[in-house]
Amino acid sequence: MNKENPAHIHVLFVAAFNAGDIDSLVALYELNAVLVMNGQLVEGQQLIRNAYKSFLALRPRMTLTTQSVVVFDDSLAVLHGDWILEPALADETGNTTRGLSTEVVRRQPDGSWRFVIDSPHTPR
User: Domain limits at 38?
Assistant: First the structure.
């Protein structure tokens, strides 16, 4: 899968997330992107960075499977993905969680895609 495919952002997201690479993770979001975290809107890269920082410190492991991609006008796309989040091996008290995400991504001038809206907990 190449960067021209909107679903490629899922591959990049999982790689950065599982590596605990906060810089690469935040770079996947537009400057004024919105992340829905615990029902609250987290707006802009700096606040998104803060939201992920404490979460990534727990070192969870994610798998993400793209379920659908709808592209509009070759510049916007809606993605749905099934995800599984497992606690770090050292975290014996953690639980495995599952969910469905919905994201809006926009094509950038270099052909890559960035999150505009990221809602990781879509009701089924």
Answer: 8-119
Q: Give the pLDDT confidence of 8-42 residue by residue, as tens digits.
A: 999 999 999 999 999 999 999 999 999 998 889 99
Query: What is the C-alpha to C-alpha distance for residues 10 and 16, in angstroms, rounded to an integer?
Result: 10
How many independent structural domains does the chain possess? 1
With contact defined as beta carbons under 8 Å apart, do 103 and 118 qualify?
A: yes
Residue 124 lies in a domain: no
**How far out from the chain centre does Cα 124 lie?**
18
How confident is residue 54, by pLDDT bands cut at 50, 70 and 90?
confident
Residue 111 belongs to some domain of the structure: yes
**Residues 36 and 42: beta-carbon distance below 8 Å:** yes
User: What is the reported pTM?
Assistant: 0.91
CA distance 20 to 18: 5
b (16+ CB within 10 A) / e for 27-53: ebbbeebbbbbeeeebeebeebeebbe
DSSP-assigned beta bridge partners for residue 97: 85
